[in-house]
Recover the amino acids of this structure.
């Protein structure tokens, strides 16, 4: 079976598997309909078929199916810290409760994702190919987090330009000889780097906490406490999250470590939450 | 040596009257004249060892790599013409990467060995191409365990417990036969491999470097160069063993 190149194709750009040409030529479009799976040999077009899909069998991502929620990350004294929960939701259903939404790229870099989990798995495959290439050249040189970030920007932007995005918000965190690195790449290719980055709901909920309390030289205990508080807030206020988190640390000294899943102390016995209508105006 | 295949040795698409393809044989000779490379398959992994003659004092130590990583779990040692070996190693990488893309798992050793074998064989079939002047020893650790293969310039690929190619192959193979490889760990085998290389090295005063790699339990089933301290220790033991046998003589 001939392998279909899905990466590093000069014509299509990285990360895309498509037919020979990204844009069908007039020769292809003006061809009479060939018998195929979707067309009977008698020549009659089947009813209730979107005519556009007869020419182009490729589907474009219209909406995500299995999604992860927010990711938050901060820089601290020893390096960077990323945190997210372990839920992959199927719409409103909290379906997969042990998904690791973080991926260790190499000893200096971690990528965490919210959004469509299958697209994230594809991104992990691409990054694995890059890392194995590094392993193969065996010269002690690894991809730096800046390089991983730039590569992912290009992949996501190119996919957006083909109207077939990888539906993810990615956080790239790591350490490099010139300091620690944190960046975010969105599904349309929007990207930025900062001392603290967040995706999804954490943009609204965790960012104020980070703005107030995050400092580049904070100690690990302070950073952990800040991360716990941010994760807790996101769990309280985001309906698509669960009380099961992972924190990844990337430090100059010890490299990458992704923690075991843990839960935070949360309270649901607030009186006003337990009986909301009791306190409402007009209730009896 | 010249005159043996007169007239029948000009192209790899010509048989000689006694059924040989001389171009392939000459390619084999090119390998036989290179420095020794050996491979040992042990209980828990595979060890590859190359003797590299230091061609010039101006060369940086560790250059002229003879052992290449193909994938995380596969490595290749090259004997013969180094650039030819490099081409074969690159092809092996392409095959391993494409297998992973299609089937989603690391390429098994026997599949990779077959693909490399048929690639090398390709170059024995056509008049416009010359056979590769390199034998590669392939060390793989897949879900079926560790395995050692050798692919020679004719495209034959065979699976071995232990083998050697190059100048000192006869002496090295004799030494390998004395070893009980099935009971040895890779750690012990590294020492044995270094000892053998020191023993079969032609004593013409030329300095030589060793390049030793392993893929075993201890390396996390990843193909990598042997840790520097283990290699240094093995070299010390090898030199001591040589001196002992010299004194005995």
């Amino acid at each position: 079976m001939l392998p279909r190149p899905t990466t590093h194709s000069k014509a299509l750009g990285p990360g895309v598997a498509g037919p020979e040409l990204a844009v069908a030529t007039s020769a292809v479009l003006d061809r009479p309909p060939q018998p195929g799976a979707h067309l009977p040999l008698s020549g009659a077009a089947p009813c209730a078929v979107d005519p556009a899909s007869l020419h182009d069998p490729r589907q474009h991502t219209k909406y995500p199916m299995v999604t992860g929620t927010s990711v938050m990350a901060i820089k601290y004294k020893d390096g960077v810290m990323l945190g997210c929960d372990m839920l992959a939701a199927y719409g409103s259903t909290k379906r997969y409760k042990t998904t690791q939404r973080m991926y260790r790229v190499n000893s200096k870099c971690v990528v965490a994702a919210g959004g469509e989990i299958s697209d994230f798995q594809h991104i992990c495959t691409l990054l694995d190919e890059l890392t194995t290439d590094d392993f193969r050249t065996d010269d002690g040189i690894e991809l730096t987090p800046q390089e991983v970030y730039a590569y992912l920007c290009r992949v996501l932007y190119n996919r957006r330009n083909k109207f077939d995005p990888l539906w993810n918000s990615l956080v790239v965190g790591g350490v490099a000889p010139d300091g620690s690195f944190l960046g975010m790449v969105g599904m349309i290719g929007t990207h930025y780097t900062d001392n603290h980055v967040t995706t999804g709901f954490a943009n609204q909920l965790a960012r104020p906490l980070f703005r107030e309390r995050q400092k580049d030289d904070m100690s690990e205990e302070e950073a952990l406490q800040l991360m716990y508080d941010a994760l807790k807030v996101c769990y309280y206020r985001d309906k698509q999250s669960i009380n099961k988190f992972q924190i990844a640390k990337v430090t100059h000294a010890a490299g990458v470590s992704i923690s075991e899943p843990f839960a935070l102390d949360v309270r649901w016995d607030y009186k006003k939450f337990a009986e909301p209508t009791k306190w409402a105006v007009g209730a009896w | 040596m010249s005159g043996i295949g007169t007239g029948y040795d000009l192209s790899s698409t010509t048989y000689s009257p006694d059924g040989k393809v001389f171009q392939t044989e000459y390619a084999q000779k090119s390998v036989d004249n290179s420095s020794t490379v050996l491979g040992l398959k042990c209980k828990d992994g595979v060890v590859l060892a190359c003797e590299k003659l230091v061609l010039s004092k101006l060369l940086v130590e560790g250059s002229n790599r003879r052992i290449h990583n193909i994938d995380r779990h596969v490595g290749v040692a090259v004997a013969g013409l180094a650039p030819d070996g490099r081409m074969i190693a690159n092809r092996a990488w392409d095959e391993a990467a494409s297998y992973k893309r299609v089937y989603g798992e690391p390429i098994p050793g026997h599949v990779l060995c077959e693909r490399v074998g048929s690639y090398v064989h390709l170059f024995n079939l056509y008049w416009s191409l010359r056979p590769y002047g390199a034998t590669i020893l392939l060390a793989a650790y897949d879900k079926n365990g560790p395995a050692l293969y050798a692919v020679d310039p004719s495209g034959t690929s065979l699976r071995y417990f232990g083998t050697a190619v190059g100048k000192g192959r006869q002496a090295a193979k004799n030494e390998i036969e004395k070893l009980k490889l099935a009971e040895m760990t890779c750690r012990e085998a590294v020492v044995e491999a270094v000892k053998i290389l020191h023993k079969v090295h032609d004593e013409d005063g030329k300095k030589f470097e060793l390049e030793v790699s392993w893929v075993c339990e201890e390396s996390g089933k990843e193909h990598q160069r042997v840790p520097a301290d283990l290699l240094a220790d093995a070299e010390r033991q090898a030199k001591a063993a040589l001196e002992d046998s010299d004194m005995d003589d």
In short: The domain at 66-258 of chain A is CATH 3.60.20.10 (Glutamine Phosphoribosylpyrophosphate, subunit 1, domain 1). The first helix of chain A runs from residue 26 to 29. The interface with chain B takes residues 1, 3-4, 6, 129, 132, 135-138 of chain A (CB under 8 Å). Residues 39-49 of chain A have pLDDT under 50 and may be disordered.
